[in-house]
């Protein structure tokens, strides 16, 4: 007898013949069973939500960097003896530099800053920065000011620069408007309103939303003749 004949015939059996059920039912509950979301997607969603909150609570500069328009910056420094050079927000602080005319050896520079729209204000002394080139007719001062932990949402930060030398006081108040720091959502709303109302020939915005002023190219235009440069506007 061959080996093939010794093998038994194949048989097919079902689960119910052995006492098992032919079907299995699984009930899912949206409350009891957590939705299995990959970790990287969950982390991405949390980051997006967190980023939205941070951007909403953050502050932005409501003015262009003065030194970006060099012609206007030079003219203002020559006429007013003091001008904010640059400013930026770093973490919870305002940092930047100020240029002043070197009228005498003894001089002081300070920022007058308000956190409640000039109900109160605080003066912060700026620090002298040693110039690499001796004999310059300009001096540089720097500032690094920590912002309060909590600022009312309806308030804005404003500051002006004060330069004192030989008993005289000179101000840079951004042409009477002061340098303003506002919440980011207010800046976005302002830019949207500008686009709806059409262009302003005094101030235009580039494709990145940065203001560009024509007075630096045409300083003889009378658009700025009415402001008071002798002190901060409040």
TrEMBL record:
The keyword Iron does not apply. PROSITE patterns: CBM21. InterPro entries: CBM21_dom, CBM21_dom_sf, Pase-1_reg-su_3B/C/D_met, PP1_regulatory_subunit_3. This is Protein phosphatase 1 regulatory subunit. Residues 74-182 form the CBM21 domain. One of its GO terms (cellular component) is protein phosphatase type 1 complex. Pfam families: CBM_21. GO terms for molecular function: glycogen binding; protein phosphatase 1 binding. It comes from Pleurodeles waltl.
